[in-house]
């Protein structure tokens, strides 16, 4: 199903990468100890949220491109802020490569992400972005609770 274009493939990638840049700055804003230990109520520390985002975006996008429906696995155990930032940067580079392998005509094809979430490719991509925004919002709450001013949410560069 082809519809009139609202935004281009390149604009969608730029939008996603803008969110990734902002989330990276949120990770950077945390003191090392608080990144791994601070939490509010039953929520997880932000380090675990960041690792979830890392384990979804890269493998999920590779699955879409390669049409591999492997189960979701959060089998990463990053121990320092620098390890998280390094892995974040690696996945960010992977996104550029794999996103550009998706043909525009395939955006409406159904794909069963992680063998569990059967929806059009574009909905899977929007899920990656939405999930990141959701968890970044939690990071903003944490930073404010720690007395740290988070980066402006509108500065996605």
TrEMBL record:
Which InterPro entries has this protein been placed in? Answer: DinB, DinB/YfiT-like
Q: Does the keyword Metal-binding apply?
A: yes
Single GO molecular-function term?
A: metal ion binding
Tell me which Gene3D superfamilies the record gives: dinb family like domain
Q: Which SUPFAM superfamilies match?
A: DinB/YfiT-like putative metalloenzymes
UniProt lineage: Bacteria, Pseudomonadati, Bacteroidota, Sphingobacteriia, Sphingobacteriales
Under Pfam families, the record lists:
DinB (PF05163)
Q: Where does a divalent metal cation bind?
A: 135
Q: Which UniProt keywords apply?
A: Metal-binding
Name-wise, this protein is: DinB family protein
- Family the UniProt entry places it in: Belongs to the DinB family.
């Amino acid at each position: 199903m082809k519809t009139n274009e609202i935004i281009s493939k390149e604009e969608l990638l730029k939008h996603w990468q803008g969110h990734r840049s902002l989330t990276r700055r949120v990770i950077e804003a945390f003191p090392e100890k608080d990144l791994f230990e601070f939490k509010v109520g039953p929520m997880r520390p932000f380090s675990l949220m960041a690792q979830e985002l890392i384990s979804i975006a890269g493998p999920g996008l590779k699955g879409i491109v390669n049409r591999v429906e492997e189960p979701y696995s959060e089998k990463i155990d990053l121990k320092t802020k620098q390890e998280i930032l390094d892995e974040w940067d690696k996945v960010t580079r992977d996104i550029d490569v794999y996103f550009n392998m998706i043909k525009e005509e395939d955006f409406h094809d159904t794909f069963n992400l992680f063998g569990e979430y059967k929806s059009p490719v574009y909905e899977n991509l929007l899920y990656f972005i939405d999930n990141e925004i959701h968890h970044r919002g939690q990071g903003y709450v944490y930073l404010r609770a720690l007395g740290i001013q988070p980066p402006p949410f509108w500065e996605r560069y």
